[in-house]
Amino acid sequence: MPGKRDGTRRKGREGRVGPAAAAGGVLNAVVIFGTSEARKIVDRLESAGVRTWVAVASEAGLVAPNAERVVQAAPERAWWESWLAGQDIRVLVDASHPSGSALSEAACEACEAKGIPLLRFYRPEVNLPQNPLIHAVADIKEAAAVAAALGDTIFLTTGSGALDVFLAQPAVKGKRVVVRVLPQARFISRCQELGVLPRDIVGLQGPFSVRFNQAIFAAYGAQVVVTREGGRSSGTLSKIKAALNLRVPVVIIRRPADTRFKPEQICCTPRQVVEKVLAASHA
Known about the structure:
Rossmann fold; six-stranded parallel beta sheet
């Protein structure tokens, strides 16, 4: 796969025999990484005898998962079709962030075209506190408009993916936008290309505690914080609590509706994922 690094690692698990192997043959699955629960999903699948590939979006992700087989994937359907052609993948588990990504969309399209079963792991949604400082919005454009009305220094914690859309909104012109992204050259360069000043680029990798978030928000003089609803076990609540402790309003982008998956394809726990993967092997 040109242009992408195959980070395969082996840790002596090849002799492990689980339900999938015991049932006859080896079941191959691929998990799209992007949540902390993805680690548990991979470990449980391997324990059940499922040979599991982990697909990550960046070079940083190559060292993050505790897995034997890790591949840096491209957010392109053609790349996925090419990679899948060389693997005997029987099921794909999308365990990426609840807001989704171009990578997961491309992977799902390729799998659907090849008739490979899909499962989607979703964290339970965050129960937002009742507070007048919390403003829930539908998308990044609305987030920009609402945030601009709430303060002149906007601390954006949604990464660089939709940064161009956020900065293009007329309401944020003249506002100071501080952006927190992963400390990788391509993400920092992306911010600079879009006109974010070096002083306003915060290159850090979480997870972050309430105390840490509070210190960062205060240090940059945040007058409003923008985040996504990432699920109960994500860093969403930490950011909300930190902002509220500072009496700073929070704009939260709601989880988008995903019509690609039927109810029977959705899992809310790592255990459910394993059960459905094993069931798919007998389908």
